[in-house]
């Protein structure tokens, strides 16, 4: 089975369920988005969270996806940057616990990053992300040896603000013979750096993951048309359409996969990351595009029924059994 390495913001998620969305307005956080925040706002949110019941879990888009793949039994690695503090040690220990090779660089200038996650009554999640040490990962930190032994590099779109670092990572990955996967991450990130996303997808990226808002921000089109446009730029395009499932296109092959039914959505945090994890795991196993999509849907269904992105060991065993039964 091929090994996959993730490149992303090494973040710990601090999750809290809110009774209404007033706090989002107060903190100027658009509902459903990921907004980068400074230390002052992070401290204000931390003070708010101190009065609530919160849950800690490893986060970051690539971190979530890599951890899920590791739990399925895939060979995984992760490149990121933390500080030698509580959150940095929490992140490292979680990766190692699941068998991921943790290539974590240390920052001596900023504390480890934290994604403050507000879970609305309808299950929608909104992130106020303080990158901290994660933001200090630079092009010069990367080396060819980090990518050797892997078949695929998974990059989260949240990293695109540092163009030099992303291009360096892709250059090294291609030199080492890896395919490159990009998750668009958030519609506001795509809107803010559209030209660079276009460059990456047209020239370097092999597999693109987007939800319908991100796909529309990138193409200006609805999902059915957007997936075709993106597929002309890369090898495989996947557009997730929420409760309606996903659209997958490779060349002239078009597949629509229905979402797995869910009685109650508790928290949508990690839904897209887990879909990507299931899909890429399927690819490493040599499964069809349809089965890859079904595995992605299976993982998404399970993670949106818990708070955060941690599933219990028994649940992972059940998921593995269900994967074997998928046609």
UniProtKB/TrEMBL annotation:
Native source organism of the sequence: Bacteroides muris
CDD domains (UniProt xref): adenosine_kinase (cd01168)
Keywords in alphabetical order: Kinase, Transferase
Name listed for the protein in its UniProt record: Adenosine kinase
Family: Belongs to the carbohydrate kinase PfkB family.
Coiled coil: none
Classification of source organism: Bacteria, Pseudomonadati, Bacteroidota, Bacteroidia, Bacteroidales
Gene3D superfamilies: 3.40.1190.20
Database matches in Pfam families: PfkB
GO MF term (any one): kinase activity
Residue ranges constituting the Carbohydrate kinase PfkB domain according to the UniProt record: 54-310
InterPro entries: Carb_kinase_PfkB-like (IPR052700), Carboh/pur_kinase_PfkB_CS (IPR002173), PfkB_dom (IPR011611), Ribokinase-like (IPR029056)
PROSITE patterns: PFKB_KINASES_2
């Amino acid at each position: 089975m091929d090994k996959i390495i993730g490149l992303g913001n090494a973040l710990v998620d601090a999750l809290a369920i809110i009774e209404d969305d007033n706090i989002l307005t107060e903190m100027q956080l658009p509902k459903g988005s990921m907004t980068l925040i400074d230390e002052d706002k992070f401290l204000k949110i931390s003070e708010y969270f101190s009065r609530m019941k919160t849950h800690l879990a490893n986060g970051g888009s690539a971190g979530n996806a890599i951890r899920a793949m590791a739990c399925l039994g895939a060979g995984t690695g992760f490149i990121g940057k933390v500080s030698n503090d509580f959150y940095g040690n929490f992140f490292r220990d979680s990766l190692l616990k699941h068998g991921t090779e943790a290539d974590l660089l240390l920052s001596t200038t900023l504390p480890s990053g934290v994604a403050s996650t507000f879970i609305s009554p309808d299950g929608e999640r909104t992130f106020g992300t303080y990158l901290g040490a994660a933001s200090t990962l630079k092009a010069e930190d990367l080396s060819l040896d980090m990518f050797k032994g892997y078949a695929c590099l998974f990059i989260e779109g949240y990293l695109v603000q540092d163009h030099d670092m992303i291009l360096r990572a892709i250059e090294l990955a291609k030199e080492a013979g890896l395919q490159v996967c990009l998750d668009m991450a958030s519609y506001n990130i795509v809107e803010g750096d559209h030209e660079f996303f276009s460059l990456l997808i047209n020239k370097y990226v092999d597999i693109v993951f987007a939800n319908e808002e991100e796909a529309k921000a990138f193409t200006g089109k609805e999902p059915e048309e957007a997936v075709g446009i993106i597929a002309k730029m890369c090898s495989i395009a996947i557009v997730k359409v929420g409760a309606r499932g996903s659209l997958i296109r490779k060349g002239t092959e078009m597949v629509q996969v229905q979402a797995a039914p869910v009685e109650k959505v508790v928290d949508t945090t990690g839904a897209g990351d887990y879909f990507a994890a299931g899909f890429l795991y399927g690819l490493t196993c040599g499964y069809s595009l349809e089965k890859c999509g079904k595995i992605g849907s299976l993982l998404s269904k399970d993670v949106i029924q818990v708070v955060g992105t941690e599933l219990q060991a028994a649940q992972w065993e059940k998921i593995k059994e269900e994967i074997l039964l998928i046609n």
